[in-house]
Specification:
Layout: H1 3-7, H2 11-19, H3 23-45, H4 48-68, H5 77-95, H6 110-114, H7 121-138, H8 143-154, H9 159-166, H10 170-190
Helix pairs in contact: 2-3, 3-4, 3-5, 4-5, 8-10, 9-10
């Protein structure tokens, strides 16, 4: 098959052809999606060398999975690759101990979900203790809620990005975030974590 014809093939067809031994099909898949996936990785790590490493590692994982014959993301190749790269980004931050802590920002503050008043000076003083308790509680959330919270708070991803990577609708992602916040509130009450005086 001519290269120009291959470019018109769907991702699913290209994946199948690669699994059947056509290496050129995989080159075209990478070529088609390279900028989107690389730009996504770079937007999170903000370092070209690290982004390049994670990009390479993403496609090594993709190749291994396809060669094992366990790929089952029919028609969702890009979302699947984005999920792999997202997990590798999280691994990178965990390994390098650079996982950002909760930081209040004007547009998004985890504390606004837990208390109705904005943090005052006293709240800011106890914030460090609270953050540690909060991070421990987050690990107890259901996996899907923890994932959305993690992407939104730690990676500052939009709900549109979260929706694309997890393969769920924006409404589902928003719902998971809402339930995560509700569950956190309950756990905070049960654990008597003091957020305000």
């Amino acid at each position: 098959m001519q290269t120009s014809q291959l470019h018109k093939q769907t991702d699913a067809l290209l994946v199948n052809q690669y699994i059947l031994g056509d290496e050129k099909s995989f080159e075209i898949l990478i070529y088609k999606h390279k900028s989107r996936i690389y730009n996504f990785i770079f937007s999170k790590v903000l370092n070209r060398d690290i982004a390049e490493d994670i990009f390479q590692e993403t496609f090594i994982k993709v190749i291994k999975t396809l060669k094992k014959g366990v790929y089952n993301e029919e028609g969702k190749f890009v979302s699947w690759v984005m999920r792999i790269s997202h997990n590798l980004i999280i691994d990178y931050f965990r390994k390098s101990n650079r996982m950002p802590k909760f930081e209040a920002s004007d547009d998004y503050d985890v504390f606004q979900f837990i208390t109705d008043s904005s943090p005052n000076a006293e709240n800011n003083l106890i914030k460090d203790q609270v953050e540690n308790d909060l991070q421990n509680l987050i690990t107890e959330l259901p996996e899907d809620q923890k994932e959305v919270l993690d992407m939104r708070l730690y990676r500052d991803m939009s709900f549109k990005e979260i929706s694309e990577i997890t393969g769920v609708s924006i409404n589902t992602a928003l719902g998971r975030m809402r339930y995560a916040i509700i569950n956190l509130r309950k756990m905070i009450e049960e654990n008597q974590i003091l957020l305000t005086h």
